[in-house]
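ingest -> validate -> predict -> emit
validate: passed (alphabet ok, no gaps, 738 aa)
predict: started
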Amino acid sequence: MSKFKERLGKLSPKKRLYALETLPGHLAESVQGERLHQLLTDFDFIEAKLEALGVEALIEDYDLARNSDVLLSGEQSETLKLIQGAIRKSAHVLERDKTQLSGQLLGRLLDFEIPEIQGMLEQAKQWKDAVWLRPLTANLERSGEGCLRILSGHTDGVKAVAIAPDGKRAISASGDKTLKIWDIDSGTELRTLTGHTGYVNAVAIAPDGKTAISASSDCTLKIWDTETGSQLKTLIGHTGYVNAVAIAPDGKTAISASSDCTLKIWDTDTGSQLKTLIGHSSYVLAVAIAPDRKTVISASDDKTLKIWDTETGSQLKTLTGHSDPVTAVAIAPNGKIAISASRDQTLKIWDMDSCRELRTLTDHTREVQAVAIAPDSLTAISASKDRTMKIWEIDSGTSLRTLTSHTNSVLAIAIAPDGKTAISASHDKTLKIWDIDSSSELRTFIGHNDRVLTVAIAHNQRAISASSDNTIKVWDTDSGTELRMRTLIGHTSVSAVTIANDGKLAISALPDRSLKIWHMLSGREIKTLIGHTHFVSAVAFAPNGKTAISASHDKTLKIWDIDSGIELFTLTGHTSMVMAVAIAPDGKTVISASLDHTLKIWDTDSGRELKTLTGHTDDVTAVAIAPDGLTAISASWDNTLKIWNLVNGKSLITLIGHTWLVEAVAIAPDGKTAISASWDNTLKVWDLLSGKEIASFSGDYNFNCCAIAPDGVTVVAGDASGRVHFLRLEGMGDLGDV
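emit:
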């Protein structure tokens, strides 16, 4: 126990709150830099302040220390900057779950060899207030890497974002049919705007910041009061999805772009339609208004851009050059150039006077979805389906930096009026705030170069992971270090992997419809199993190590003899792809999980179907069987897990807590707890007796897979970025009290 915690414990609740609120300010005002530094590197203070006053008050204490005249040394200031950055980057997690403080700090700061940070983390490791997952390796994004902050709250992809002229607020638009107004400094959600009945595809904020206009797939636009969140007007006239909207610099008119192949000019005061611009031969996907208000550029699915005269509504020029639909366009604040983005994976810079193409920007590997130009007209930022953003120097057309952090397509980007901050919006349901000048690319982390598809652990505590980067890796779970890597030449990816209980053999499943058996020690390939007619999605060893069972997109499972490589049985009955398979401890029964929303129990001796388990309302992606062989847990894209009685095939409990697709589940050797992995970026620990969630760990990316070691406390998980996470389940001795 630190001295601070000891002193705090002697105070009344009222005085404790007062001390937490005022002590940092008092130390700053009295120029006690050393004491203030000690306070802000004390885990007990950090935890107490977070619990009592919230994450934003805690972040402000570090600003106070670093920006006041307390005479911190350069090293002390850097230490506080790192801790503050870790807290800020974890703010969206800590706002909803303060019990994750220890895990977030360890995951982001563990590899900084700074005595004060290491001392603080030693305190964090001793946290015993609840069951929690302790990171054994630093595999979360650190301070100074990637984004500054994550904004979460939408329940579907975020399609657009706009920043207010004062740079203090932002508005996001989502496929969940809502808009949200955010405070950029604190990252807090101020209000949610509801009223659209379809996806909200775009949003623009008026120059005075008082109103905003949204565009929706419900074929309407809506004008909102940004102060109150109230809906002022609905603009009706388009006969197709409204894909984009822009507001003129004087705020008096707005222009919308629609899938009805037209653009419309609107009077924002009256809500009346002024003109319809006709000329595109396919969907109009984007629109931008020049600073002089006289011209507009539209981008279309017909692969062209068109320049229009706003006063007459006449078409002035057609810009051609893209080989695929043009998804976005932006005009520089100086009015001299425009930049277009396309599904052909390029951006093009155009001279506004001559309408001539100046250069083509090529660096993205998938469709470019959005582009924004900085206020100085010197740089631009593009957003792509390849999950990255790129900062470009406009004059030379060179890519200056790549920003990576999103786990799905980046759909929109906005740059603040000061040119220093940007906000990105993604199909991963989040927005991310970036410091354009200082944001560094992510460091090399523990794992793969692409998403981790599956992990498995043998009785000797060796773990194995398979990835879309064409490799499998072998790990020591105690240290989290890689022991060996084998590249599977000639295969496009490794879709699944399993390891025998004795740790001697492994089987990998490959998208070319085959499986390979190989020796763990030498990495030597022993046999290739061929028989499936489609992608092999999962494979499991029988407990005796003599047989294995594979699951495939061809809607079947196959039982294989390991020694001979002969197919023993084909199990048929599912009506859609089989995604997962688990074998009971006695080796006599198998459970499969399928995209047909069901699980099936099979007899391994005869290959006969015994039962069908129904209850999930979406694809079933994973299944695990308890050590007693009497119960099983399934994971589904309906965001739930279900516990099943295997004797009667009935669902016992539904586990509710994940907010997005559940991809994997593993049961501890004692059969009392389970861990699930989800696209909501969390691992969750469940008490199987009560069905309650008892712990959660939030990563930076979607979790695809998880496994529990035979020791019952070591957890290995893989995510969409390629990271392999090693964690320890702490506080299990108190589980009976949960």
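The two ends are 24 Å apart (CA to CA).
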